Structure formats: structure tokens, C-alpha cells
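Propose amino acids for all 248 sites.
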């Protein structure tokens, strides 16, 4: 079946209620299915995964309803190895990512108080928090690598994680791959991370940086956030240094 290009094609970073999605919106880290393109297309050819619709001789897309159904039911076990379901495959994919540090970024934004004033918490939306994380990431790499940091993608910090407690004390746990950093005039890597997060949050936020010594942090990073991120992909954080752009 061929559909005209008038059919809606939705932007990366969202899984709409109806319409068509392209392959990069289906597969991790942007989409909800943690498979490689080769594995996915092999499953399509074998009939294990939904069949695409053809927009042109070289352009294909998938019905989002069929992708949602696949996510909810889970793919056949041979498609995800011993995992047997999407959530376990996601956990395995997260755990397989190279990571040297565990980083927790929090917007514990307790406002400065006047004498006699009760503590208050300034709520921050997930979109604002995501923007803060992206700015922090750019600033950290600029401090480490200099103003031409974008010319060295292999030396940039890479991370994945999930936004948690978006309705109150928003924070995120990140699995970060931090290339070796020799202390420079800006300090150690931990000092740079601390400094730049303080600048972004107006010194109200907090940050914790620890070297990863075992694989337990991957499970902690996932926790119960998989379901929430599946419903709201904006809760999934990853660095642009991964080579995927989460927004149009």
C-alpha cells in the first residue's frame, strides 16, 4: 500500500496517537524500541514486526498504532534475545552503554528566604529542566575542550538518563561516559560539572558525581521511569554527542 506524503509524519522525540512515524522515531535512543536498524529490518522482513507503508520509492514509514501495539505486547522473544519484552530490552540497552560516571542533577530550588518566611520550592517543568541539562552539557564541554568543543565529538561527554519527579522535585540520574580529563585552569572534571550546574540553576540546584564501579547504576537509573518515559518521551535525556538529535 502506498500513501501520499500528505499523511502526517511526526517529529522525533514524540510518539503520537495516530499517523505515521519514521524509523529513527521508532528505534532507541529516540524511540521506544531498543533494537538496531539491522535487527529491526530483519524482523520486518520475517514478519515479526509491523510492515511499513511506502511514501515514495525510497521513503517508508510505519503506522504509529502498530508500533504502540508492539511496545505494549512486547516483540517475539527471538527479537530481543533472552529479554522477552521491551522493558527488559531497554534495561539491557541502557546497561550496555559505556559509562564511567554516575551523575545526579537536581533542581532543589529552595528559594532564598527572607526572615520569618517559610521554605518554598520553585517548580520547574521537564522542558525547562531538559533545557538546563543541555546548556550545562555544552558549558561543561566548553570548559574542558575550549570554544571549538563541537569539533571534537569523540571527546565530548555522552550520557543517557531519565527525568524523575517532574511534578515536584525534578531531577535526573545520568549514566555518563566522561573521557579522561586532565585538570586545567578550570579544575577537575567534578569541579567543572559542579560549577556549571550551579551557574545554570542559579546556585539553587545540587549535583552528585561518582565514578561507576559496577553495573548496578544502570538499573538505578532506569528504576520506574521506563513507563513514564514511554508515555512521555520528553522525560528521556541523552546527549547530542550520541549523534541523535531529539528535536526537529
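Proposal:
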Amino acid at each position: 500500500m502506498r500513501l501520499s506524503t500528505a499523511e502526517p509524519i511526526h517529529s522525533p522525540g514524540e510518539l503520537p496517537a495516530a499517523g505515521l512515524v519514521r524509523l529513527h522515531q521508532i528505534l532507541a535512543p529516540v524511540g521506544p524500541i531498543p533494537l538496531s536498524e539491522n535487527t529491526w529490518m530483519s524482523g520486518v522482513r520475517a514478519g515479526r514486526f509491523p510492515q511499513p507503508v511506502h511514501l515514495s520509492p525510497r521513503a517508508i514509514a510505519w503506522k504509529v498504532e502498530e508500533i504502540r501495539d508492539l511496545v505494549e505486547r512486547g516483540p517475539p522473544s527471538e527479537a530481543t534475545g533472552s529479554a522477552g519484552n521491551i522493558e527488559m530490552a531497554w534495561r539491557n540497552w541502557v546497561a550496555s552503554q559505556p559509562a564511567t560516571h554516575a551523575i545526579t542533577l537536581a533542581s532543589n530550588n529552595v528559594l532564598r528566604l527572607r526572615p520569618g518566611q517559610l521554605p518554598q520550592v520553585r517548580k520547574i517543568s521537564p522542558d525547562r529542566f531538559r533545557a538546563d541539562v543541555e546548556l550545562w552539557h555544552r558549558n561543561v564541554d566548553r570548559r574542558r575542550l575550549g570554544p571549538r568543543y563541537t569539533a571534537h565529538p569523540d571527546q565530548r561527554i555522552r550520557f543517557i538518563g531519565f527525568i524523575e519527579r517532574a511534578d515536584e522535585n525534578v531531577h535526573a540520574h545520568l549514566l555518563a561516559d566522561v573521557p579522561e580529563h586532565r585538570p586545567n585552569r578550570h579544575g577537575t572534571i567534578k569541579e567543572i560539572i559542579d560549577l556549571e550546574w550551579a551557574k545554570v540553576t542559579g546556585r539553587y540546584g545540587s549535583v552528585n558525581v561518582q565514578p561507576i564501579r559496577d553495573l548496578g547504576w544502570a538499573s538505578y537509573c532506569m528504576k520506574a521511569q521506563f513507563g513514564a518515559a514511554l508515555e512521555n518521551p520528553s522525560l528521556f535525556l541523552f546527549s547530542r554527542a550520541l549523534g541523535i538529535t531529539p528535536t526537529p
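DSSP finds eight helices and eight strands in the chain. The mean pLDDT is 75.
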